[in-house]
Amino acid sequence: MTHFSDLQNKSVLVTGGSKGIGKDIALGFAKNQANVIISGRNETSLQDTVQELRKHNPSCYYVQADVTNMEDIEKMFRMAVDYAGRLDILVNNAGLNITKPALDVTEEDWDQVLDTNLKSAFFCSQKAAKYMTENNAGKIINIASQMGFVGYWDRAAYCSSKGGMIQLTKTLAIEWAKYNINVNAVAPTYIKTELTSTMFEDEEFEKDVYQRIPLGKLADPSDVTGAVLYLSSTISKFVTGETIKVDGGWTAL
Ligand code: NDP
Questions:
Q1: Phi then psi for 136, rounded to 5 degrees?
Q2: Starting from the edge strand earliest in sequence, which strands make up the sheet with 35-40, in order?
Q3: 145 lines ligand 1 (CB under 6 A)
Q4: Closest residue (by CA) to atom 12 of ligand 1?
Q5: Catalytic residues, which ones?
């Protein structure tokens, strides 16, 4: 386990922290004795994950909130700050993918992907920054994707949303540097989670993915968590506007 002693007692909000990569990130923070607040829509998953987090740090909480709903975003930050007293770190992790040929993508599909992945990251960051400016300190980490750097079949909306997230990271980093808020992103390659489980039922897809990753295997959620903890720690205090690729070399090809 990666240990960063300066994360102890920091207050962290991880959106989509109930499952998959977000859950691993939340566990990473809890193991470093940070106060963790996770959010998501399904309350049962949130309750189960918070029980696991509390084994490492009792000061962990959840907020049931849909990041595509502005009132829920408002509630999520209010409750997070009520629970933890302050907000030091935001991880914009909640996300989804709709895999469809571009010719079949509907307006509803497009809006769902862009609203969940990109619009939410902007408005959650804006809300977080309002608290962080009061402390003149903060860290915002966006979970983007290698798909923000490259194209791939049937992922027009997803690639657009993640490319947008990388640009958003740079812009907010520049604008909020004066408040001592670092804004960075992590861009993972494929990881087996609920989000990708049906994709890997397609053998051709699986073969193609393995061929494109020089390290020859998929990433693990802990690979993302390591990068997130580094970007959250004071050790990375001079890093801002950066996107760390955790892609086994996919985008280096
Ligand atoms: P999962 O589907 O396993 O988990 C997604 C999480 O986001 C869940 O906690 C889910 O909870 C939450 N979530 C989804 N939609 C919303 C919403 N509208 N409001 C609030 N919470 C929401 O996905 P992963 O762990 O695989 O993905 C996490 C992030 O990592 C995403 O941004 C994804 O794009 C990115 N990523 C994933 C890769 C992969 O291969 N898995 C590769 C590169 C990037 P609930 O459903 O209860 O709301």
A1: 50, 40
A2: 60-64, 35-40, 11-15, 89-92, 138-143, 181-188, 243-246
A3: yes
A4: 16
A5: 158
**Using 50, 70 and 90 to split pLDDT, how confident is the model at 214?**
very high
Does the Cβ of 163 fall within 6 Å of ligand 1? no
- In order of 133, 205, 241, the CA distances from 152 in angstroms are 38, 11, 25
Cα–Cα–Cα angle for 226, 209, 145, rounded to 5 degrees: 45
Cα 18 to ligand 1 centroid, rounded to whole Å: 9
CATH architecture of 5-243: 3-Layer(aba) Sandwich (3.40)
The ligand 1 atom at the shortest distance from the C-alpha of residue 18 is: 9
Would you give the distance in Å from CA 83 to the centre of its chain?
21
Distance separating alpha carbons of residues 14 and 23, to the nearest angstrom: 8
188 lines ligand 1 (CB under 6 A): yes
pLDDT, one tens digit per residue, over 147-198 is 999 999 999 999 999 999 999 999 999 999 999 999 999 999 999 999 999 9
Give me ligand 1 centre to Cα 248, in Å: 20
Give ipTM to 2 decimals. 0.99
The CA distances from residue 183 to 145, 146, 178, 186, 214, in Å, are: 16, 18, 12, 11, 28
